[in-house]
Amino acid sequence: MKRMGTAVIGCGAISGVHLKALSQLPLTELRAVVDINEALARKTASQYGCEAYADYREVLKRDDIDVVHICTGHHLHAPMTVDALAAGKHVLTEKPLAESRDSARAVLEAEARYTGVQLGIVFQNRYNPASRTMKRYAESGELGKLVCMKGLVTWYRSADYYNSEWKGRWATEGGGVLINQAIHTLDLMQWLGGEIASVKGSVTTDSLEGVIEVEDTAHARIVFRCGAKAIFYATNAYLRNSPVELEAIFEKGTLHMKGDRLYLIQGDETAELCRPEAVNELGAKSYWGVSHAVQIRDFYEHVSEGRKFWIDGKEGVKALRLVQDIYESSRLGKRIDYP
Ligand SMILES: NC(=O)c1ccc[n+]([C@@H]2O[C@H](COP(=O)([O-])OP(=O)(O)OC[C@H]3O[C@@H](n4cnc5c(N)ncnc54)[C@H](O)[C@@H]3O)[C@@H](O)[C@H]2O)c1
User: Fold this and answer.
1) Model-level pTM greater than 0.70?
2) With CB atoms counted within 10 Å of each terminal CB, which end of the chain scores lower, N or C?
3) End-of-domain residue from the set 124, 150, 171
4) pLDDT, tens only, 184-226
């Protein structure tokens, strides 16, 4: 089988997870890495045996690059995705799809227009065994109807973390804990709960007031069309990165996810359904989730077999919409009803 030529744009913190996953994929050949920090691009290129670029548009001109991975700050996802799709490249972009509603619209328009290429959004936690098991229960109806859910993200991000060219500002990060860290948990909640009827939420900057423009803490109440109700709390103002907790109460049992562990509680009985994988070879921090390599392989398998990838723009924008609606609800001080 012909190997797909690949480029990774952005050689910062998350890029190593993509690069290591790619190096283990026989379907692909890494041909270029890009970073405006030329020394970093060169160092990464020599480590992975490919060419270094400072301008991603040069890579988009190469006929031997079929797929680009976008691993830059949030405000660059939309313009880079649109340019890459227009240049005939498949795109796998890190979450979120974009930093604002307008940018997200531009990406969705490009996705609809350039039908010969695929767009994938990284939501690796959907591939975690615990999340997949929860989804199976939600779909099978084995535990009856979903009654309510609870999502908790209690993490720590220091002022130093925000010493970045894009983090901590509305224009470039597009928000704080919601759009960057907790979007994964919101994505799982909307994936399990289905269509949303309304959301009311509020955001605040509790610990890093004066340091960042964006919120470090948020809460929300989400009502689903199926009748289930959810509460959600996220903060970067805790002092540890605790495992994310997600609880889904069904008529006949409760699923409780804590990090990579999943328990089924029925009456007095508790069964452990999933436990953490022993090794994380990609070097991903455990609180990021460990399923990047699984999603990346799945994306390439879909592309190479000409099958539509399932976490595309339309799917990836759902969590972003929820994030944006919590911001709007907070700004307006009222519930947002979905049409
Ligand atoms: N899925 C996850 O769990 C997860 C975890 C961490 C980060 N991320 C996402 O990955 C993305 C990158 O995050 P990060 O922490 O690696 O950021 P980072 O700031 O460490 O890295 C971004 C890199 O992009 C480079 N860059 C900036 N402008 C560029 C341009 N025009 N062309 C090429 N390179 C450019 C910067 O020089 C930097 O090296 C973000 O979208 C973030 O939300 C996802």
Assistant:
1) yes
2) C
3) 124
4) 999 999 999 999 999 999 999 999 999 999 999 999 999 999 9
In a domain, 293, yes or no: no
Mutational pocket test of ligand 1: of 42, 59, 94, the residue with most ligand atoms within 8 Å of the beta carbon:
94
Q: Which of 91, 109, 124 is at the close of a domain?
A: 124
Q: Is residue 302 part of a domain?
A: no
74 lines ligand 1 (CB under 6 A): yes
Q: Is the CB of 243 under 6 A from ligand 1?
A: no
Radius of gyration of the chain (CA): 20
Separation CA 127–CA 123 (nearest Å)? 8
Specify if 327 maps to a domain: yes
Pair (88, 154) in one structural domain: no
255 located within any domain: yes
Assign residue 42 a region: left if phi > 0, alpha if psi is -120 to 50, beta otherwise?
A: alpha
121: CA distance to ligand 1 center in Å? 14
Nearest atom of ligand 1 to the alpha carbon of 292: 1
pLDDT in the model for residue 226: 97
- What region does 63 belong to: left with phi over 0, alpha with psi -120 to 50, or beta? alpha
Is any atom of ligand 1 closer than 6 Å to the C-beta of 35? yes
Using a 6 Å cutoff on CB, does residue 40 contact ligand 1? Answer: yes
Please give the pLDDT value at position 283. 59
User: What is the percent of the chain with per-residue pLDDT over 90, rounded to a whole number?
Assistant: 94
- The answer to whether 180 and 288 are in contact (CB under 8 A) is no
Give per-residue pLDDT as tens, 287-327. Answer: 666 799 999 999 999 999 999 999 999 999 999 999 999 99
Over residues 252-267, the mean pLDDT reads 97
CA of 80 to the centre of ligand 1 (A): 12
What is the per-residue pLDDT for 290? 72
DSSP 242: P
**Same domain assignment for residues 86 and 226:** no
What backbone phi and psi angles, to 5 degrees, belong to 53? -135, 155
